[in-house]
Amino acid sequence: MKKSEKNRETRPLSLQEIKEKNEPVPNEVWQLRLYVAGQTPRSVTAFANLKRLCEDHLAGRYEIEVVDLVKHPQLAAGDQILAIPTLVRKLPQPLRKIVGDLRDTEKALVGLQIRPA
Amino acid sequence: MKAVKGIEKEDRTLPKAPTGIQGLDEITRGGFPRGRPTLVCGSAGAGKTLLAMEFLVRGATEYNEPGVFMAFEETAPELTQNVRSLGFDLDELAKKKKLVIDFVRIERSEIDETGDYDLEGLFIRLGAAIDAIGAKRVVLDTIENLFAGLQNEGILRAELRRLFRWLKDKGVTAVITAERGEGALTRHGLEEYVSDCVLLLDHRVTDQVSTRRLRIVKYRGTAHGTNEYPFLIDEDGFSVLPVTSLGLQHKVSEERISSGVPRLDTMLGGKGFYRGTTILVSGTAGTGKTSLAASFVDAACRRGERCLYFSFEESQGQLTRNMRSIGMNLEQWTRKKLLQFHSSRATFYGLEMHLAIIHKIVQEFQPRVVVLDPIGSLIQAGNQRDAHIMIIRLIDFLKQRQVTAFLTNLTSGGEALERTDVEISSIVDTWLFTRDIELDGERNRAMYVLKSRGMAHSNQLREFLLTPRGVDLQDVYVGPEGVLTGSSRLSQEAREKADALARRQAAERKDRDRMRKREALEARIAALRKEFEVEEAEAEIAGEEDVSREGVIADDREAMSRSRQADLVKDGVAAKRRKGAR
Q: Using a CB-CB distance cutoff of 8 angstroms, which residues of chain A are in contact with residue B114?
């Protein structure tokens, strides 16, 4: 089943805090979906990397949904998933995809457009 | 027959999945290697996608092998639309769970890569699709697009290798398409991974005429045709034309059919052509080749046989009008659906297309007679060699169906007359030759039978006349001055007629003289006979008188001696006479 991870802080961030963190829009919830295929070391690494990244940069404003394609192969077509693991940024628009285990945080941040390239 | 045997034989060594594509199974001796991937490469527009799609559709409809089409280029609706024109209804097949189309979109601009990954997602999608319908066939079209979407070529290559291995393990017969690369079969060297069967499609344009060709680059573990085979894509899909697939095992008919020209039938052993043979009429321009063809068609329609007329130079309207001028009403046959015209410029399609169109129309219309007028123009659609091969194939095809083929060929003035542009004179059965004879300031047509296999045929040159009542053949005048035709022939004939009349009159006169002489002689004979008869009669009377006179004399003498009492002399004569008188 969908392994939804909800981790939202109750208190909204102040403008100052937002500026400090160099984040684009306040109050926006980041919807992220991580596609994995079974509990492989690579998918575990990818999830750990993602979690760390979100905590560091999107604390309280993100949702991570992990989709295991071994269990739900039919879900692969919807987001055009080929590579595993693939992280899909559903929100904010536009859609972004990052393939790989996210071991390069800088690249991942650029890919997710958390940080400008 | 041979091909079927070949398939059975191959089956023992390497199981194959028939493609169901016309001609392709023949040259691959049964199809693609079953349970293994086959690589189809070719440049853009070469027909890779279509070949792959037809492989799936035929598999699903004819061999009960459902298939998965993984498209990396076109979406499912696009694909469905593209092949609908070929009569493939993908929606229907999808509904029946015979086919799954999975469109894989890779947008590089929205993908970033960081760290390790694999293509398990692709495997899972493909596996799910295969399992959903129990697919036996898989198409990946064109998997090379992955190279455009993903940066890490090392991972990609490793994963592709794994994919092909995995497909083999799954036991599906796969077709992988790939774009032709510079100096290599594929742009990204996919042929390294697919080593069982590689097909190369080619689309060439020579002299502004395009020709599609297919070649089996390799096919491990089986014999296969190694030529380049022309193929075409038309409304029935893909068809490959194996150049030498037809043998010489056609049935032979003893039936004879009229050429439509009574005098020509006489020249051909009195009965005309054999059914199912090939007749070639060659000759210089304007010598009546088309008119001969039309006469033949007219005669066939009169017998109630269906005819197909392929014209590469004249339109149907032009042909019927022109033939009307020599008293032939071809329109009645087109109206009765006995005659079909197909007029197209030879340069309109490539040779293969012509061949395929002719094949198809012949199969649909089932004619007994096919006319190709003129075959020489087909050279314009290809080169001489190709045209030659195509016409041989066509003749074989028609012979197999017992269709009588009537070909015309134009010989241009400068060339040797007794040859054809496409060098088919040796394979035709009957060769009629028309030519013009220039004499006394006029040009007349002449015709002779150059060869006609299996029948005693005339060796005579005949004058060929186009009259308002059709084609007619006349004896030519052969005399000390050579062959005379046209008005020289007519004047010569008139002269001869006059001479003959004079000769006849002289003879009659002689006859009459002789008659008279005979009559005179006979009259004289009769007169002489009469004279003689009279003489004879007189002579007899005179004889009798003599006898009676002698008798009288003897009597007188007796009487005298009696009166003189003389000794009675026993006169024999007298005694006799007396006795006789008594």
A: 98-104, 107-108, 111
Which CATH number covers residue B412? 3.40.50.300
- Tell me, yes or no, whether B245 lies in a domain: no
For residues B264 and B201, state if they share a domain: no
Number of inter-chain CB pairs under 8 A, A vs B = 96
Query: Does residue B77 have a cis bond before it (omega within 30 degrees)?
Result: no
Instruction: Give the other-Cβ count within 10 Å of B342's Cβ.
Output: 15
Distance from CA of A60 to the nearest CA of B (A): 24
Number of domains comprising chain B: 2
Tokens of B319: 């042909």
Best B124, B150, B151 residue to mutate vs chain A (most A CBs within 10 Å): B124
Contact residues on chain B for A95, CB-CB shorter than 8 A: 110
Give the sheet arrangement for strand A86-91, strand by strand.
A3-7, A62-68, A30-36, A86-91, A96-99, B111-113
> What class does CATH assign to A3-111?
alpha beta
Band (pLDDT 50/70/90 cuts) for residue B307 is very high
The reply to whether B200 falls in a domain is yes
Question: Within a domain: residue B404?
Answer: yes
Spell out where B379-419 has E strands.
404-410
B537 located within any domain: no
Global pTM reads 0.64
What residues make up the domain containing B265?
257-475
- Interval B433-482: pLDDT, tens: 888 888 778 888 888 888 888 888 888 888 888 888 888 888 877 776 66
d(CA B411, CA B417): 6
Per cent of chain B over pLDDT 70 is: 89
Q: Are B281 and B388 in the same domain? A: yes
Specify whether B294 is located in the same domain as B170: no
Q: Quote ipTM for the complex.
A: 0.76
